[in-house]
TrEMBL record:
The keyword Mitochondrion does not apply. Signal peptide: none annotated. It is a multi-pass membrane protein. It comes from Laodelphax striatellus. One of its GO terms (cellular component) is plasma membrane. This is Adiponectin receptor. The lineage of its organism: Eukaryota, Metazoa, Ecdysozoa, Arthropoda, Hexapoda.
């Protein structure tokens, strides 16, 4: 229906253009008449007043050849020529009349049949199943990792087609499912944790863990969404890649919150300073992620670097804790061991991601499985669960020792 209307509008536009062109032509013609008439009239004025026979008749004819006369004639008749419209509404009337009289009928018929053919063509293309393609056949905006040769999805400019592609085997299948399953697993753990009775887990602790669960679920969910729809179109791909990076920043920020909460449970000032610093760094990482060029393939090491440095900034409060409470206590009370393991998993994942190992050594052999991005995804999930285990241990330690000792009374 809309297509038909737009065909009609297009036809009117085409007609408008031609009418405007004709109108312009008519003006040029009239201008030409004026320009031609005036010099002729002045130059030949004296000769016309001479006594050459027949010149009086010529003079009369030239005097009648006046543009005002022509305009008057047009206005008086009330039936302007299509090429000289004086009122835009008249154009529409003319078009309607022209359609009635069949002048434009064949053009509109042609437009309708062309639109129907195009519609049919698109429908057939959509009905036909797409097939995976080679890296060199991808549009430039989909070319990310040239060590992955075959098995790429072509552009699928429909969200339903993108989501249906989850169930097909291609270069993104592993990336999609690793983070989809990770996201579902974290939703399950979060529901279990949040539904604990308040005698078991205080509301405050639930909120602190909620920050972590939110970071993990949003990060894995956005990553799943990005890998699913980034072949939709260039713009959609750009938006979701930014969201994907923002998700990583959220996961790192969310990871810090419970660790700092329990690690500096009785040190309010340090806790506030570190939390403020982490939130500031998290927001900065998100701002950098929103930079248009951040997603470019050439900036892969920079991306890995930004998130690695952000994650490694956790070394500062960890060393602070170890220096004030002792290294052994840091391991037993602040889950330092789990924290180090988590850091190692993230760093190894970032190295795989940045260097594109193993596909770099086996180009075209990791097109579907075991490519660097899948290994990175699996390591991110492993690190996220390791961290969950670590902060759960810290929470249990806090439960076992009870609340903070009262501040030492001033001894006089
Ligand atoms: Zn990813």
């Amino acid at each position: 229906m809309n297509d038909r209307m737009s065909d009609y509008e297009d036809a009117i536009e085409v007609y408008d253009d031609s009418a405007a062109g004709a109108e312009a032509g008519a003006h040029v013609g009239l201008e030409g008449l004026r320009r031609r008439k005036e010099p002729l009239w002045e130059a030949d004025n004296s000769s016309i007043t001479s006594d050459v026979p027949g010149l009086h008749e010529v003079k009369e004819l030239l005097e009648r050849d006046d543009t005002s006369e022509l305009a008057d004639e047009e206005i008086n008749t009330g039936n302007p020529l299509p090429s000289t419209p004086v009122d835009p509404s008249l154009i529409e009337t003319e078009v309607a009349e022209a359609i009635k009289s069949g002048v434009l009928e064949h053009e509109l018929d042609w437009a309708h049949s062309a639109a129907e053919q195009a519609e049919e063509f698109v429908r057939r293309v959509w009905e036909a199943s797409w097939s995976v393609c080679h890296f060199r056949n991808l549009p430039r905006w989909l070319q990310d990792n040239d060590y992955i040769h075959a098995g790429h999805r072509p552009p699928l400019p429909s969200f339903s087609a993108c989501f249906r592609s989850i169930f097909r085997i291609h270069s993104e299948t592993g990336n999609i499912w690793t983070h989809l399953l990770g996201c579902v697993a974290f939703i399950g753990v979060a529901i279990y944790f949040m539904s604990r009775p308040s005698e078991e887990v205080k509301l405050e602790e639930k909120l602190v863990f909620a920050a972590y669960f939110a970071g993990a679920i949003v990060c894995l969910g956005l990553s799943f969404a990005f890998h699913t729809v980034h072949c939709h179109s260039e713009n959609v791909g750009k938006i979701f890649s930014k969201l994907d990076y923002c998700g990583i920043a959220l996961l790192i920020t969310g990871s810090f919150v419970p660790w700092l909460y329990y690690g500096f449970y009785c040190h309010f000032q340090s806790k506030v300073i570190y939390l403020s610093a982490v939130i500031t760094l998290g927001i900065s990482a998100m701002v950098v992620s929103l930079w248009d060029r951040f997603a470019e393939p050439s900036l892969r090491p920079l991306r890995a670097g930004v998130f690695a440095v952000f994650g490694l900034s956790g070394v500062v409060p960890a060393v602070h804790y170890a220096l004030t409470e002792g290294w052994l206590n840091a391991v037993t009370q602040a889950s330092l061991g789990w924290l180090v393991l988590m850091g190692c998993l993230y760093i190894i994942g970032a190295i795989f991601y940045a260097l594109r190992v193993p596909e770099r050594f086996f180009p075209g052999k990791c097109d579907i499985w075991f490519q660097s991005h899948q290994i990175f995804h699996v390591l991110v999930i492993a690190a996220a669960f390791v961290h969950y285990h670590g902060i759960t241990e810290m929470a249990m330690y806090r439960m076992s020792v009870g609340e903070c000792p009262p501040p030492q009374e001033l001894v006089l």
